[in-house]
């Protein structure tokens, strides 16, 4: 099984590698889990009306609508700004989706899948549906100042895995 996901040759033009399929599957799981968590937060427990909800001494659910990019930077408070961020996110999603097709290393496939799913969940679906990103995970007790969501977590873990993959690189192939 492990050798099934060893470095593989790039797919022929127009085809997706097996690891590309893995990247797309990871992205799909991230989008589904992210949107289900937001459905639960918004439509089941009605967090906007009940915020904050203490869960643990170091963790609470706090509703924050983020009209900007990461950590509220580059706020897009106007309709034009929102659609500009949607267009930018669409370009990133398209680039990640094209890159995912050619995955040849498992760690890289998971990293790209996490980033792709997070970008779809946050930057496209939320911005089109709500005009902002729904953030609600608040680890205030750990002195972590930002409120975030599952898609943010997926993007962050994806970037860390991408960096790890770049340091590990692929094994050199034996000459034949």
Evaluate the radius of gyration: 18 Å
Side by side, the strands of the main sheet go 1-2-3-4
Tally of structural domains? 1
Taking the sheet with the most strands, its summary is: 4 strands, antiparallel
Unreliable sequence segments: 172-176
Q: What is the N-to-C succession of helices and strands?
A: HHEEHHEEH
- The computed structural class is alpha+beta
Q: What is the arithmetic mean of pLDDT?
A: 86
Q: What proportion strand?
A: 5-15%
Q: Looking at the structure, what is the overall shape?
A: globular
Number of helices: 5
Measured as a percent range, the helix fraction is 55-70%
Q: How many extended strands? A: 4
The end-to-end span amounts to 24 Å
Task: Report on this structure.
This protein has 176 residues and is an alpha+beta fold. It has one domain. Helices cover 56% and strands 11% of the residues. It has five helices and four strands, in the order ααββααββα. It has helices at residues 18-44, 47-50, 79-101, 106-130, 150-168; strands spanning 53-56, 59-66, 133-138, 147-148. It has a four-stranded antiparallel beta sheet with strand order 1-2-3-4. β1 (53-56) and β2 (59-66) form a beta hairpin. α3 runs antiparallel to α4. Residues 172-176 have low confidence and may be disordered.
Give a short synopsis of this structure.
With 176 residues, the protein is an alpha+beta fold. It has one domain (16-168).
């Amino acid at each position: 099984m492990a050798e099934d996901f060893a470095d593989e040759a790039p797919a022929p033009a127009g085809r997706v590698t097996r690891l590309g399929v893995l990247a797309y599957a990871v992205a799909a799981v991230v989008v589904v889990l992210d949107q289900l968590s937001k459905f639960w937060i918004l439509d089941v427990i009605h967090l906007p009306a009940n915020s904050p909800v203490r869960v643990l001494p170091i963790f609470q659910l706090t509703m924050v609508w983020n009209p900007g990019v990461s950590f509220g930077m580059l706020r897009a408070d106007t309709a034009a700004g929102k659609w500009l961020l949607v267009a930018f996110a669409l370009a990133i999603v398209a680039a990640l989706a094209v890159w995912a097709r050619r995955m040849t290393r498992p760690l890289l496939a998971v990293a790209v899948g996490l980033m792709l799913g997070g970008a779809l969940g946050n930057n496209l679906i939320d911005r089109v549906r709500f005009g902002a990103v729904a953030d609600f995970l608040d680890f205030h007790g750990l002195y972590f100042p930002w409120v975030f969501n599952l898609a943010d977590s997926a993007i962050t873990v994806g970037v860390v895995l991408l960096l790890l993959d770049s340091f590990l690189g692929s094994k050199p192939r034996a000459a034949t």
